[in-house]
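INTERNAL AUDIT FORM
Audit reference: QA-55
Scope: verify that the stored structure record matches its stored sequence.
Auditor: D.O.
Record contents follow.
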Amino acid sequence: MKSTRHSTRPNGFYRARQWMVLALVGLGMAVLTGRAFQVQILDSSRLQSEGAARQLRSIAVTPARGRIIDRNGDVLAVSTPLDAVWAHPPTLFQAAGDWPRLADALGMSINQVGSLLDRYQDREFVYLRRHLPPAEATRIEDLGIPGVASLREYGRYYPAGPITSHVLGFTDVDDRGQEGIERAFDNHLAGIEGRKRVLRDRKGRVVEDIESVQPVYHGHDLKLSLDLRIQVSAQRHLAQTARETHAAGASAVMLDVQTGEVLAMVNVPDFNPNNRTDRTGERFRNRSVTDVFEPGSTVKPFTLSMALASGRFSLETPVSTSPGIHYVGRHPIRDVHDYGELTLSRVLIKSSNVGTAKIAMELAPEELHGVLAKVGFGQTTGIELPGEQGGRLLKRDRWRPIEHATLSFGYGLSSTPVQLARAYSVLASGGILRPVTLKHQSGPVNGQRVLPEHITRQINVLLEKVVSAEGTARRAAIPAYRVAGKTGTVHKISPEGGYEESRYQALFVGFAPASAPRFVLAVMVDEPQGRHFGGEVAAPAFARIMADALRIHGVRPDAGVDSGVTIVAHTRQGAPGA
């Protein structure tokens, strides 16, 4: 019979083990209870704040930029809703496995995404793509990639594209004005940014608007004086002229005689403000206000108005221009032809440099300087555009005779196209100088009288003769309308000093209808090839643009209306000059 051995341990051992287990359980419960007390009682406010900081955020509310419209209400610039895709770099860093999908959706490489996050890893916010269509931004957001979300913003759109580009300018990626009207009226158009508090989910997406912290104020609309219909016509005809003459560039400015409003302002080459890659400095420069040139023979009407106002000359005063060259000291002044003896009226009609210089030198140079300053040469027009140049009109203590002579026919001073248009608006308005503006005016604008009305009336009759068969601008004529104006052809100034022999600028500036002027138009063509006289190059462009403007505004023809001024002048005919 086998015997069985029973192994026994003291009851105290089991009791000790039970107490140890109970102690550990009790300690655990005490730690949990203490931690719960700390979280729910002691640190409750701090933890709630940190949680809110991770989910509740104050974000900017971008204002919509005000529209720009023309005088008839046609929209020239408008801000359209777009979206930006952004990321929270620390969160997106932890989702590196989603980078390939994100990069493909953004049209970027994985290295580009990684490099961007490396650069902004300590930031809370970084843009991934800007100015996306809302549908595309939503598609990217719906990928559900942690730390990636979209944000509403606005992008500027210009319906007329290049046609209004130089006047309107453009905005940057943040919709701030950079050039033109957009820059000049940025505060008016931009509005004031607001802020709101939003609730985000764990992926950074906005799930609820909580409250408005600061109200957003959207920008104000701006109504310009531009007439888009005339602007389109001017751009088309000016571009055609530049193509046909292979010119380096061209500008045209049209003003309303009674208000000083700019109805059209175009330049070629132009640029497309909707395409950021097209915004090169050479193309977006508004040549109508920034580029200066010597106005040449277009100054002669003001020289002769000075002579008539002096009382020492009349329209019939004879002036000898033979043999077509006149020396002032050692310096020659030349005409295109030998016109022989001309009356003062025909000096302007034939655009005689010799005759103009001889008349001017009968009077003091200070008188000529004074007349040119009164009509706005040598000073800015005050137009609401950045970068306007005032041109040059030097006032000397002692004038050399050759300076006096050349100033009389437009050499030795400089002007911009808008200055030249304003100067002729003085003639068209009967001697009144008005400020030039791009803001729409509701009625006639008061100005300052700078020339006697009866003098301007006589000069305007002569300017009509310039646009006749006996003048230098036959090609500026418009059927059924009386047109007044003046040609100009100048040598370009060389960067090394002096003048370029074979590089020219062709000019024509005038107004219509001559019986009751409504519009003034200045056209400048830079470096035309081949034909280069103002009457051949700039005058036809003037006629086409002005004819469209008269038709668009329903201006009645005035070909049968008498001027009321009689010119008695019988001299031999000469060939047209410049």
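Auditor finding: record pair retrieved intact. The first helix runs from residue 11 to 42.
Action required: none
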